[in-house]
Amino acid sequence: MGVNEQERQNAGPEESALTVSRLVRRMRNILEIEIGEIWVEGEVSNMRMQASGHAYFSLKDEGAQISCAMFGAKRREGWEALKDGAQVRVFGEVTIYEARGTAQLVVKKVEAAGQGDLQRRFEELKRKLQEEGLFEAERKQALPAFPRTIGLVTSPTGAALQDMMNVLSRRAPWVKAALYPVAVQGKGAERGIARAIAQLGEPEKHGLPRCDVLIVGRGGGSLEDLWNFNEEVVARAIAACPIPVVSAVGHEIDFTIADFVADERAPTPSAAAELVVPDGEELKRRVGRMGEALRRPMLEALRRGEDVLRYARRGVLARGAEKALREPVLRLDELRGRLGQVVKDRLSEAEAEVRDHRASWKVLHPLVLVERRREGLGQIKLKLRHGMRRRLEGSEAKLVRLRGMVKALGPESAFERGFSITFGPDGKVVRGPEEVKEGEVLETMTKGGVICSRVE
After folding, report:
1. What is the pTM of this model?
2. 108 with 132, same domain?
3. Can you tell me the distance from the alpha carbon of 203 to that of 214, in angstroms, rounded to the nearest whole number?
4. Are residues 134 and 228 in the same domain?
């Protein structure tokens, strides 16, 4: 028992009583120290946003509720998720509101319940696929300029299908749309989406029409509603599809893994339909402008031809065709003769060049070159043989001289003259009596052999 506790028990009623403020303050200190900042999950109710920018609400579950305050809410992370009935996770500090003596959670951060885990999974898969190169622009396919059949992978009952059909019928009524109905929301929907993409990529195997481009998508919704398009099986099906794929999931602000892997991303399904087909009315206007641009120079050329023909009829042709063609025929005969002579001269020059090349080619024929190289190698071989013989003879004479010098200066010559060499026990040459000790065995090398002796 502490000293303060003992004093309170020994003191009288008046001395031990606390004021309400001190009691509430102690309660607040205990809560802030013992619990402090924590994450709490529950349902939002009684949400009130004050003009001051502060938000007041209750967080409840089946068994209890607690008052919450978020000061400067619009500056806080995730405040948009605070709506009546929303399931959220809040991070804040547990305290006591002293004016009323009630527990309160001062919120600093809000996120939709489950959103944190989904966001983490989204980032992990995005990083994994990006490292594999599935987002690279080099692997993405270009959309066809004039598709004839468009595959739609979406819900058959959703508004997205009607939006796309309206755009396609308005812009390109000649285009055929092939619907592959799938569930775009709920457990297991991602497997149906991936299966649809894979089968449309190999339509002959599954009795489906051959499509020029695919649109995969749905209308807007929450992160949970769009989550099937963030699954790895859908991303890999899009990446493996041999047909260009346009991802059209949600609204413009919504991004999914399918958007990053697809060959093109459209902000909405309607925008995807506009992206894959040209505008028919604009094509008509363009063709009309091109036709007009071609028609004007043709009409001008025809008018110029009519003028030339009219002038010719008034002039030369009026005097007779034979007279008009007489001079051109003579000029043509003259040109034909000159051309024949030029051809003959050019052929003569070409024949001379061929003869010259043939003569030079004979000299450079591979057999001739090989024979020359063979003769050169023979001469080199003779030079090497003579050089090696001279080197060997010189080395042999030098070896004889060195052998004589070694014999004259080596120890054998000294032995011949009666000299000897004495070695100590360590094998070193003994140069004087001071280098030996009594009892040591010495070896003396002479001409006739080795003599062993002991020092006395």
Report:
1. 0.47
2. no
3. 12
4. yes
